[in-house]
Amino acid sequence: MKNISTKKLTIIAMFIALTTVATMAIQIPIPATKGYVNVGDTIVIACALLMGRTAGGIVGGIGSALADLISGYGYYAPITLVVKGLEGYIAGLLKEKTSLSFIICGLAGGIVMAIGYLLAEGLILYNFPTAIASFMPNLLQGIGGAVLADIVYPILKKAIFNQLDFN
């Protein structure tokens, strides 16, 4: 993202805001970890597919960590910054470097997210039995995010990028 244009920076900021709102709009608690399942991954993965790995990583990390801070999950924010940043980065990287379908790229990002939280919760926040209890909800969140991103991708591409003559 060398020499980033004002237009690209503005779109990245918009995706950060959308990620924060989507993450906060629907929060299903995970009692074992006191965390939550959300739909923010949809925006993270869609951004990564539309704008690439760097934007996906920035949007995933910052947008999701902001939602944690605003929602009262500040202790998760540093982990979320890294884990969701990796989710967006991996999805965007695979889209840029391979001919894999969008859904496969998104699924890879979602799997990285679920494994990232498993490791962080098991090694840093809690213990592995507790982390394992949240693994399946996180994995389902990642899968759902990939499927929904595949659906909203053409809509976002047409609405945002084609209308703004984005290159």
UniProtKB/TrEMBL annotation:
Q: Which Pfam families match?
A: ECF-ribofla_trS
Q: Which organism is it from?
A: Peptoniphilus lacrimalis 315-B
List the record's Gene Ontology CC terms alphabetically.
Answer: membrane
What keywords sit in the KW lines?
Membrane, Transmembrane, Transmembrane helix
Taxonomically, which superkingdom? Bacteria
Name of the protein described by the UniProt record: ECF transporter S component
| Bilayer-spanning residue ranges | 12-30, 42-66, 100-126, 138-156
Which InterPro entries would you find in this protein's record?
A: ECF_substrate-spec-like
